[in-house]
Structure formats: structure tokens, C-alpha cells
Design a protein that fits this description.
- This protein is an all-alpha fold.
- It contains eight helices and no strands.
- α2 (15-23) packs across α4 and α3 (28-47) packs parallel to α5.
- The relative contact order is 0.11.
Length: 200
């Protein structure tokens, strides 16, 4: 089963929740707002020393991130502006979570290894570049949902790392740092190939 099929299956599991929200008349934007709130509070929880709590909040934030888009489509409210706002809020969520993890690393009572903040920053840079590459590609009319490390994978790995503890979290950070930059290269190659097919 490929990655798209797995994502589709996961969304089907959430169909009852989407149906319930739709029947209650809940706005997709409200779901998005809750997602950002979970992210911000989760990042604060991480920065204050609770990786487990931060991981749980991240799972709720990720759930909202899936539900808002599906709900918008179910209610026939999916718009370009909605997609734009959703993308902006996703970046906010990523920045605050990586920031919370960075503060946690720096505030370790027994100090921190010098390279750990660098790994976290490189992972954040790769995550942002991955999303930016897709946004710029779609801005010139090229679909760019390619690469080994997209946002759902990043969220899932971060949540696992946070819940499992600091050592595994740093291993996850290294994985994200490497694979996100690989994804950027994959997207650059994809856009280069597809751009040659566009009319000049």
C-alpha cells in the first residue's frame, strides 16, 4: 500500500467525526483555530518540561489539521482563501512546536549537547523549505505533493518522539532534518521536470 492509499484510509476512519461536525454546523475555520490553539499550548507544555503532554497536544493538533480540510470539502466550503489560511496556520504550528522543543533542549538541568539545537534548527529549516517548495510550485501551476517527508509524516514522527522521550525525539529530529532536505531536492527535481512541459 502506497503513502496516498494510507492517507486515504486514515481519512475514511475519520469520516464519522467529519459527519458529526458537519451535522453540528461547526465551521472548518473553528476547527483550524482549535488546531493552532492545541499547537501553541502544546509547545508551551514542551518548553516547560513535559514532552509527553506536548506529544498528546500535537496529536490533537494533527487531528484538527486533517478534520478542517475534510470538513470544508464536506460542507462545500473549500476555497482558495481557506487553503491559504490553512497553510499559514500550519507554518505557525510548526514554528511554535520546534521552538518549544528548542527551549526544552536548552533548559535541560544537566546541560545540553552543543549540536542538538543545530539539529532542531536544521529540521525546522527543512520542514519550512519543504512546504515553501510546494507552495511556489503550485504558484506556477505545478502540483507538488511528492517527497519522502511531507507534513503528515513530520507530525506523526514528532508526536512519537515527544511521547517516547528526549533521546528518541532527537533521533526523530535527525531523521526529519535529513529526509526533509531530501524532500526539498525531490521537489526541485519534480518542478524542473514538470516546468519543461509547461507552455512558454
Amino acid at each position: 500500500m502506497d503513502k496516498r492509499a494510507i492517507q486515504h484510509s486514515a481519512r475514511r476512519v475519520l469520516d464519522p467525526a467529519v459527519n458529526l461536525l458537519a451535522s453540528l454546523g461547526v465551521s472548518p475555520m473553528l476547527v483550524s483555530a482549535f488546531g493552532v490553539a492545541f499547537s501553541v499550548w502544546g509547545a508551551v507544555v514542551v518548553a516547560r518540561g513535559s514532552l509527553l503532554g506536548g506529544g498528546i497536544f500535537l496529536l490533537f493538533a494533527g487531528l484538527c489539521d486533517v478534520l478542517d480540510g475534510d470538513l470544508a470539502r464536506r460542507l462545500d466550503r473549500a476555497t482558495p482563501f481557506g487553503a491559504f489560511i490553512d497553510s499559514v496556520l500550519d507554518r505557525v504550528s510548526e514554528f511554535v512546536y520546534f521552538g518549544g522543543i528548542l527551549l526544552f533542549a536548552v533548559r535541560q538541568p544537566d546541560g545540553f549537547v552543543a549540536y542538538e539545537p543545530v539539529i532542531i534548527i536544521v529540521a525546522l529549516m527543512g520542514s519550512v523549505l519543504t512546504s515553501y517548495a510546494r507552495a511556489r510550485a503550485e504558484g506556477i501551476g505545478i502540483e507538488c505533493k511528492v517527497g519522502v517527508m511531507e507534513r503528515p509524516e513530520r507530525i506523526a514522527l514528532l508526536a512519537i518522539g515527544l511521547i517516547a522521550g528526549y533521546r528518541l525525539l532527537m533521533a526523530v529530529m535527525i531523521l526529519i532534518a535529513v529526509t526533509s532536505h531530501v524532500t526539498v531536492v525531490q521537489r526541485v527535481r519534480h518542478v524542473r521536470r514538470e516546468s519543461m512541459r509547461l507552455p512558454h
